[in-house]
Amino acid sequence: MSWRLTPDVCVLIRWKDIPTQYNKERTILRHLLQLSLLVYIVLSIPACGEKQSSYESTTEWSRESALDASTADQRDKTEKRSREQNQSIPEPQHEAQREVGTKEAVEREQNGQETLPDTGLGFEQQRTALQKRYGITLSLHETFPIKTTHGPIGGKDAVQTDIESYGALFFPEWQLYPTTLIKRARLTKIVFCTDLSFNGQPRTAIPDLEHNVLYFDVAKGRHSKEYVRRTIHHEFFHIIDWYDDFKLYSDQAWSALNEPGFTYGSGGKDAQGDSSGSLLTDTQPGFFTKYSLSGVEEDKAEVYSIMIVLSSAAHQRSQTDSIIAAKMKQMKQLLKTFVPDMDDAFWQAAAALPRP
């Protein structure tokens, strides 16, 4: 910007109002005004510069702060993604065919005293509704074997009668879950099949953490409806447990609830020989079943499934076993932290679900 230092810049004095005989004074006054204006301009330039510098400094700080925040956010996302990708995916959990539930329930089912629930809807209607509600696939036809890091998952298409009878038990249990839980657990597919196996070993169910798929053998374990119901929740919990903190075989906070000096076994895969391993028992303080002793991951999954399917028995046991009470409390806190919708209303609905 250029400045023109002339008398007409000044608006305070009109030159024509000064008599012509005072030309000398007019000249002096003009010079004084020009000098004053020059001084004003000179003094104003640093101030403007300071304001501009201050603005530029603030703008630069804001830009750098925004970049830092963006970089930090990107770094957090990258670290989380790297953690998920580089974390060793656990081997699919072991759920071989084994006895489960109360002795009375097993005897009642063996005597044919239990009947399947009647929902009033056909299998395909319930299947379609489930897929639409949860945004997942309920598959009845897969191309086996399925390749995983730890070995192949084998299986075959199941016959329709087994699929439908299994579905009659499955749908009421699964519909307890809020959609937010399924999304948070990243489950994409459920597979109904038969002759399910992992690395050639027969399995009743497999949570495939590598592909976010849950497999159920609809023909195995049908000796007990209670077994089927608990298996549904037990196996799904392994997926929840993994995505909770990307740890499956260790949980110091949970282990600390046990009696001092207690040590878990070598895992569920080494506890399949005991056919009564999942029968409810109070012989071991802090544990619902002998199978729970095999590993912290199995203990948590057993507590979870029993709290859902056998809520009355779980509550009764918690009244006399402080460790069980502490584990049930921690389980509820874990689930509510994982997904806020897993609140008291969920547990109340699970307890109220008819299970004929």
Question: What would the keywords be for this entry?
Answer:
single chain, 356 residues, alpha/beta, Collagenase (Catalytic Domain), 2 domains, six-stranded mixed β-sheet, 11 helices, 8 strands, elongated
Structural overview:
It is a single chain. The protein is of the alpha/beta class. It folds into 2 domains: 16-85; 87-352, Collagenase (Catalytic Domain), CATH 3.40.390. The chain is 50% helix and 9% strand. The protein has 11 helices and 8 strands. The strands form 2 sheets. Strands 2, 3, 4, 5, 6 and 7 form a 6-stranded mixed sheet that branches. It has a two-stranded parallel ribbon with strand order 1-8. Helix 4 (160-174) packs across helix 6. The radius of gyration is 37 Å and the shape is elongated. The relative contact order is 0.10. Residues 1-13, 47-72, 82-86, 96-101 and 103-117 have low confidence and may be disordered.
Question: Would you kindly provide a brief summary of this structure?
Answer:
The protein is α/β, with parallel strands linked by helices.
CATH class of the largest domain: Alpha Beta
- Radius of gyration, Cα only, in angstroms? 37 Å
Q: Kindly state the percentage of residues in helix.
A: 40-55%
**Structural classification:** alpha/beta
Quaternary state, please? single chain
Q: Could you tell me the strand content as a percent range?
A: 5-15%
Unreliable spans are 1-13, 47-72, 82-86, 96-101, 103-117
Query: What is the domain tally?
Result: 2
Number of helices: 11
Order of helices and strands: HEHHEEHHEEEEHHEHHHH
Q: What is the CATH topology assignment of the largest domain?
A: Collagenase (Catalytic Domain)
Characterize the main sheet.
6 strands, mixed
Beta-strand segment tally: 8
Globally, the shape reads elongated
Alpha carbon gap, first and last residue: 90 Å
Quick check: average pLDDT? 80
CATH architecture of the largest domain: 3-Layer(aba) Sandwich
